[in-house]
Amino acid sequence: MNAVPEEQESPVDDLVCFALYAASRAVTAAYRPLLQDLGLTYPQYLVMLALWDRESMPVKDLGDTLQLDYGTLTPLLKRLESAGLVTRQRRADDERSVQVGLTPEGSALREAARDVPASIGAAMGMPEAEIDQLRLALRRLTANLTAG
């Protein structure tokens, strides 16, 4: 484990919020070269993961799944649509709702992205059980903070 030498520690190192921020930046940076080869940014990758799981879903459900608001999600979807990976269509049964679906190219990209999770897991350098515990703790933290 690579610990920061005590004499180099800063007061921010004791803050949970800073540890989360630094870890988030480090994880996103680890994804960057893997996703660059796929032509995706990290947020676009999250959209594609959700769609690879469900093939098609309303924008509202996608936003709920990814915890993204409409204003953040719409530009992501426009870029993915311009890249030929997704389609957006108003639903016939509800004109207010937009359905997002995968194109054949978007579906095919799933195979190219297959090794990304394992590569990130290896880069984390933590046993799988420890990663699972971390994920559960972070989910609980998010739920606690968003419940109030």
TrEMBL record:
Domain named HTH marR-type: residues: 13-143
PROSITE patterns: HTH_MARR_2
Molecular-function annotations in GO: DNA binding; DNA-binding transcription factor activity
GO cellular component: cytoplasm
Keywords assigned: Cytoplasm, DNA-binding, Transcription, Transcription regulation
Subcellular location: Cytoplasm
One family name in Pfam for this protein: MarR
Signal peptide from the UniProt entry: none
Keyword DNA-binding among record annotations: yes
Any one GO BP annotation for this protein: response to stress
Protein name in the entry: MarR family transcriptional regulator
Organism: Umezawaea tangerina
